[in-house]
């Protein structure tokens, strides 16, 4: 199975963290449903051109969070994730992105009004009011 993970060699984030964040997002967004068999550690490492140790760490971290299950001799699978966990993740992810954007606005000394204007312009561009609740065009 080819995983839609994008790595950036230019990123200040370590490779394992880039993989872990994206894989967690795929699981919590429901794009990887419960029971999905993930690539073996070796296969995933080859796909991403990284170390087996990197993928092992990602799988272990996500297993410790309860997002993955490893069955000896069978493989690593996506675990059951409750709707409340998905909602909490969605809210936290967007809140974190908003806070990062506000922090950037402060660093470049935008006023609150300028920041709100940019936010509304982005919102109108990417999520017009005629969109359904999920942000997709109706």
TrEMBL record:
<protein>
    <recommendedName>
        <fullName>HTH gntR-type domain-containing protein</fullName>
    </recommendedName>
</protein>
<dbReference type="GO" id="GO:0003700">
    <property type="term" value="F:DNA-binding transcription factor activity"/>
</dbReference>
<dbReference type="InterPro" id="IPR000524">
    <property type="entry name" value="Tscrpt_reg_HTH_GntR"/>
</dbReference>
<feature type="domain" description="HTH gntR-type">
    <location>
        <begin position="13"/>
        <end position="81"/>
    </location>
</feature>
<keyword id="KW-0238">DNA-binding</keyword>
<keyword id="KW-0804">Transcription</keyword>
<dbReference type="GO" id="GO:0003677">
    <property type="term" value="F:DNA binding"/>
</dbReference>
<keyword id="KW-0805">Transcription regulation</keyword>
<dbReference type="Pfam" id="PF00392">
    <property type="entry name" value="GntR"/>
</dbReference>
């Amino acid at each position: 199975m080819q995983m839609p993970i994008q790595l950036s060699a230019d990123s200040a984030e370590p490779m394992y963290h880039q993989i872990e964040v994206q894989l967690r997002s795929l699981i919590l967004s429901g794009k990887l449903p419960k029971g999905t068999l993930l690539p073996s550690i070796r296969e995933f490492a080859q796909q991403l051109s990284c170390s087996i140790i990197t993928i092992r760490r990602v799988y272990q971290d996500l297993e410790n969070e309860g997002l993955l299950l490893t069955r000896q001799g069978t493989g690593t699978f996506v675990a059951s994730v409750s709707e409340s966990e998905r909602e909490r993740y969605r809210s936290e992810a967007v809140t974190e992105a908003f806070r990062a954007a506000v922090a950037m606005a402060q660093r470049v000394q935008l006023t609150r009004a300028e920041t709100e204007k940019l936010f509304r312009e982005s919102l109108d561009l990417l999520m017009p009011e005629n969109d359904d609740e999920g942000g997709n065009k109706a």
